[in-house]
Specification:
2 domains; D-Maltodextrin-Binding Protein, domain 2; 17% strand; alpha/beta; two-stranded parallel ribbon; 12 helices
């Protein structure tokens, strides 16, 4: 079937857009079983290797932890090389599963094809990219997408908060955000600035979101952005700004009112890896208990129908990307319906 544009969970409309590479460094501080970054040259019997997006990392870790509790003889290694880094390893046959904070890109799919890697794409959760300031910053509680663009665009003249609008303090804005290889970075630049990869360069960047948390928490006049789960676990240090009048929360992310910074998250499964019973069991475990595990990681689960269709995709070994090239305007209910129609 044809590639789909943007979708929303349970009728949510997303401002999605083509996005680029993923985060580049493993996370520290987000709990989960068996996290690690040792080099892997091939998958091993009795073990499962998961890598990819740092945004997806807490979910993959929660899944691994729950699975290992019931499967003591299976070791699941979970790492965070970023969406782009994960796809590179995935295409080289180093991974059983890679997490992604955006759909696979044409060049990544072509590399997989060149390397003989077939994959199954499974949406697993819903996230809201969150704009944060220091908890002690009482001068600011809201921001608009237009103001965000003024702050972050390449030729930005905004150096002080007072440059943004009257009434704000004459204090220098210290900026923190993901590195340029990050899927979150690409999503933010595409959605807010209007061009993927277009951003000012005088900001502190890191693929480790906990470093971004620490940076914003350590500077009263700072501003940063990253996934909602990292804010949710650090509300004692950070304050989330409303965006266009809407505060990020589990409810506003789920009901679709937190726009345009809501987005779906994915797992890509190596079809050859499904020949390993342990990988089959892990994927089945994930899809069966996905809603609980996703919520445990402080993300929003998808509708039950999405996980049911995910099970059907795995069972039928339905390869390729349904969401590649996503653009704004389509609801996930329409995507799911289209897939149902395509099966007939």
């Amino acid at each position: 079937m044809k590639n789909i544009s943007l979708f929303a969970i349970s009728g949510l409309v997303l401002a999605f857009g083509l996005m680029g590479c993923g985060e580049t460094a493993p996370e520290a501080g987000i709990t989960g079983a068996s996290t690690g970054t040792k080099p892997v040259t091939k998958t091993e019997a009795g073990s499962i290797n998961i890598d990819g997006s740092n945004t997806v990392l807490p979910i993959s870790s929660a899944i691994a932890e729950g699975f290992e509790a019931d499967h003591k003889d299976i070791h699941v290694t979970v790492a965070g090389s970023g969406t782009g880094g994960g796809f590179k390893k995935f295409a080289n046959g180093e991974l059983d599963i890679t997490g992604a904070s955006r759909p696979i890109e044409e060049k990544e799919e072509a590399l997989c094809k060149e390397k003989g890697i077939e994959f199954i794409e499974i949406p697993i959760a819903f996230d809201g990219l969150t704009i944060v300031v220091n908890k002690e910053n009482t001068a600011l509680s809201e921001i608009t997408t237009e103001e965000l663009k003024k702050i972050w665009e390449p030729d930005s003249k905004i150096k002080m908060w007072s440059d943004l609008k009257p009434g704000l303090p004459a204090e220098e804005i210290k900026l923190y955000g993901p590195g340029t290889d990050s899927g979150t970075f690409d999503y933010f630049t595409e959605t807010i600035i209007g061009k993927k990869g277009s951003i000012r360069t005088d900001y502190s960047q890191s693929g480790d979101y906990n470093q971004l948390v620490s940076g914003v928490a350590g500077d009263k006049w700072s501003l940063g952005f990253f996934g909602f789960a990292y804010f949710d676990q650090n509300q004692d240090k950070l304050k989330a700004l409303t965006v266009n009048g809407i505060a990020p929360s589990a409810m506003t992310i789920e009901d679709g009112t937190y726009q345009p910074l809501a987005r779906p998250l994915f797992w890509y499964i190596n079809v050859k890896s499904l020949e390993k019973p342990e990988v089959q069991e892990l994927v089945s475990f994930m899809l069966k208990d996905a809603a609980k595990l996703v919520a445990q990681a402080k993300y929003n689960p998808l509708p039950a129908e999405a996980y049911t269709l995910g099970e059907e995709r795995v069972k039928a070994k339905k390869t390729g990307s349904l969401f590649k090239g996503a653009k704004a305007g389509l609801k996930i209910a329409d995507v799911l319906k289209a897939e149902e129609t395509g099966k007939k």
